[in-house]
Amino acid sequence: MDKIIEYMLAEDEGFGDITSNAVVEEGKIVNASIVSKDEGILAGIDVIRNLFEEYGVEITLCLKEGVKISKGDLLISLRGDARTILLLERTALNLLMRMSGVASAASEYADLVGDYDVRIAGTRKTSPAIAKFDKYALGVGGVDTHRFSLDDMVLIKDNHIAVCGDPLEALLKAKENTSFSKKIEIEVESLEDAVECVRNGADIVMLDNMSGDEVKEVIDELNRLDIRQNSLIEVSGGITKENIMDYVEYGVDIISIGALTHSSRSLNFSLKIE
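Given the sequence above, the corresponding structure tokens read:
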């Protein structure tokens, strides 16, 4: 079993489920189901199946990963030991609801830009310990996961630049000390820095917390200099469903949104024993 899920179960169980042990007959076999009380995209169903099966609970998946769900939809049917199902209930629901919430938010953004050649991406602004589940849910929702961890690619941010003293110096150091197999991205906050980093071959240049007008100015200048093809252009910071189309119209390549994982609302599911 996944070590993170083991930890979640251990944290929830403490020294034992004293309520179930007190009122539920040992060895009692029951049927149960998980039902949606919400609308969105289903994510995490395979994770939950593995969890229940690990503990000997028979499970039937009623819907597949990534499908749209509505209120009242039957997601999973269960049969097994009542105490075991009650022990796993909260951990299973917490994961399934959160992952489905992240996937649902991701799907909403992906649908908004579906007619454009732009990629929506998550960030590493996830909940501690369950980042990989958040990242998986982003993929189910139809957006790019961005980096899973610090070793995925070089991403030179403001604090790295503060240490180096200059964006271009940081970029050149990265190009000198990084394998050809890793992409190099750099975060910039001005038109001048954006142009220099594109001119010097950064794989991706992130325009961080720039207004729509500032982004447009950068794109126009790169096009005027005919160096746009040198780098992908990513924008991040303050992008919402209300203003995202402005950035799409400017012609950026990637829009990364931390809110997909740090602020997504969990969907509402319920486990009921029949």
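The domain at 3-103+264-273 is CATH 3.90.1170.20 (Aldehyde Oxidoreductase; domain 3). Try to locate this feature in the token string yourself.
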